[in-house]
Specification:
One of its GO terms (cellular component) is COPII vesicle coat. WD repeats lie at residues 32-66, 81-113, 184-218. GO terms for molecular function: structural molecule activity. This protein is 0% helix and 51% strand. The chain is mostly beta strands. Strand 14 (166-172) and strand 15 form a beta hairpin.
């Protein structure tokens, strides 16, 4: 969904990105066809930068699309990134406070962070061997650290990989480095998705899900403290995606049997299923 909830972008193994209107009479508005193979993810940028959509796919490309002008449904390629040498499995736009910046994770084991410059060119920084056997998912942290009262922004990314690990990364003096090394040994198979929760509390929170059927939530208090991981549930089937509500206190989970469930942390620290969404 776009920022205003008016349009939906979809990615498909047929190699297309489709944009549809949202409403009582939903209709197809545009079909984007410049990927040479399955498209794995799509992501809308914040509207302060215009109407911009990114897509990534099996062909190793990341394409940034821009609508000519609002409501025209005429899309052009703003930029095409080809610096990955294998399938690009995940993309994530940075919080808008950090500028127009896109992270991408690839089966080549690297994470790339591409940032638009004032002159319309892009600067790309790579995190090589982020997950040596392949990166499956990336997610940006909120721009402001939990409990912070200063205007100093933080640049952090969570990632998951085929190595069954969840890692966090931080930019320090213009260089990306591992914040904690591997923070996950809870998953026994590759990590399908990671999601950094909105920073509305007093702790940093990351959710992850795995091919092994487990969903985990990782929390960290003050800077310098260790991450603590807890299994929310073992679904017994692969779990595909995790996503936080904007309030940061509700987690949605989609699994391999087509179920979508919502989870909330109880006062005792245990996670409880709130509801199951009937599709």
């Amino acid at each position: 969904m776009d920022y205003y909830g008016r349009r939906l972008a979809t990615a498909s193994s047929d190699g297309t990105v489709r944009i549809l209107s949202v409403g009582p009479t939903s209709q197809l508005l545009s079909t984007l066809t410049d990927h040479n193979g399955p498209v794995w993810r799509v992501s809308w940028a914040h509207p302060k930068f215009g109407t911009i959509l990114a897509s990534c796919g099996y062909d190793g490309k990341v394409i940034v699309w821009k609508e000519a002008s609002a409501g025209t449904n005429q899309w052009t390629q703003l930029h095409v990134f080809t610096h990955h040498t294998s399938s690009v499995n995940s993309i994530s736009w940075a919080p808008h406070e950090l500028g127009l910046s896109l992270a991408s994770g690839s089966s080549d084991g690297s994470i790339s962070v591409s940032t638009a410059r004032q002159d319309a060119t892009w600067e790309t920084v790579r995190i090589d061997r982020a997950h040596p056997v392949g990166v499956t998912a990336v997610s940006w942290a909120p721009a402001v650290a939990p409990g912070a009262f200063s205007a100093n922004f933080v640049y952090k990314i969570a990632s998951g990989g085929f190595d069954s690990c969840v890692r966090t990364w931080e930019m320090v003096n213009g260089v990306w480095q591992s914040e904690t090394g591997s923070i996950s040994q809870l998953h026994k198979d590759w990590v399908r998705d990671v999601a950094w929760a909105p920073g509305l509390g007093v702790k940093s929170t990351v959710a992850s899900c795995s091919q092994d059927g487990t969903v985990a939530v990782w929390t960290k208090g003050k800077e310098g403290e260790a991450w603590r991981g807890k299994i929310v549930k073992d679904f017994g089937i692969p779990v595909w995606r995790v996503s936080w509500a904007l309030t940061g206190n509700m987690l949605s989970v989609s699994d391999g049997e087509g179920n979508v469930t919502l989870w909330k942390e109880g006062q005792d620290g245990n996670w409880e299923q709130v509801t199951k969404i009937e599709m």
